[in-house]
């Protein structure tokens, strides 16, 4: 496996993790809405749902999926992914400080792996060793 193959593999791995993160963000939004509906049906005093959190989860999920789909074809998709992951790191640290160690560490690990994959690809492609799938690799015609 040459350097270009390793770099493309790093980006494929980041892409897979981004799809998983998008799925988890969507699941978070669905769970919050279902909980709010359940509380409303029970007549519980606690019927408020953080619509900011639900909306944020949906926006993050959409951003992750769009950037994951376009990760190989558009440089702006890689930038968008890095921005979303950087915000994810901040929220992971906040989660850790809030006492939810398992959730905070898992968020931090996923974000770090995605950032690492994208940065490795970008640095490698700057040297002319990586090319998106379907494009001829340097030195192989």
Briefly say what this structure is.
The protein has four helices and no strands. With 141 residues, it is mainly α.
Which helices and strands appear, and what pairs or packs with what?
Elements: H1 3-42, H2 51-69, H3 75-97, H4 101-126
Helix pairs in contact: 1-2, 1-4, 2-3, 3-4
Transmembrane segments: 12-31, 51-72, 79-98
Keywords: Membrane, Transmembrane, Transmembrane helix
How would you describe this structure to a colleague?
The chain has 141 residues and is an all-alpha fold. It has one domain (3-126). The chain is 77% helix and 0% strand. The protein contains four helices and no strands. The chain has helices spanning 3-42, 51-69, 75-97, 101-126. The relative contact order is 0.17. The mean pLDDT is 83.
Roughly what percent helix?
over 70%
Number of domains: 1
Protein structure class: mainly alpha
Uncertain residue segments: none
Say how many strands there are. Answer: 0
Give me the Rg, rounded: 18 Å
Report the major sheet.
none
Query: How many helical stretches?
Result: 4
Q: Give the terminus-to-terminus CA distance.
A: 17 Å
Q: Give the CA-based shape.
A: elongated
List the helices and strands in order: HHHH
Please state roughly what percent of the residues sit in beta strands, choosing from under 5%, 5-15%, 15-25%, 25-35%, 35-45% or over 45%. Answer: under 5%
- Rounded average pLDDT: 83
């Amino acid at each position: 496996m040459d350097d270009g193959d390793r770099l493309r593999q790093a980006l494929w791995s980041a892409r897979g993790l981004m799809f998983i993160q998008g799925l988890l963000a969507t699941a978070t939004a669905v769970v919050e809405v279902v909980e709010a509906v359940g509380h409303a049906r029970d007549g519980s005093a606690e019927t408020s749902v953080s619509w900011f959190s639900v909306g944020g989860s949906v926006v993050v999920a959409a951003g992750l999926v769009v950037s994951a789909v376009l990760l190989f074809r558009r440089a702006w998709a890689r930038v968008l992914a890095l921005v979303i992951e950087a915000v994810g790191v901040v929220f992971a640290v906040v989660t850790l400080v809030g006492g939810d160690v398992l959730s905070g560490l898992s968020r931090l690990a996923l974000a770090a792996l995605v950032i690492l994959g994208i940065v490795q690809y970008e640095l490698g492609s700057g040297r002319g060793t990586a090319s998106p799938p379907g494009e001829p690799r340097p030195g192989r015609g």
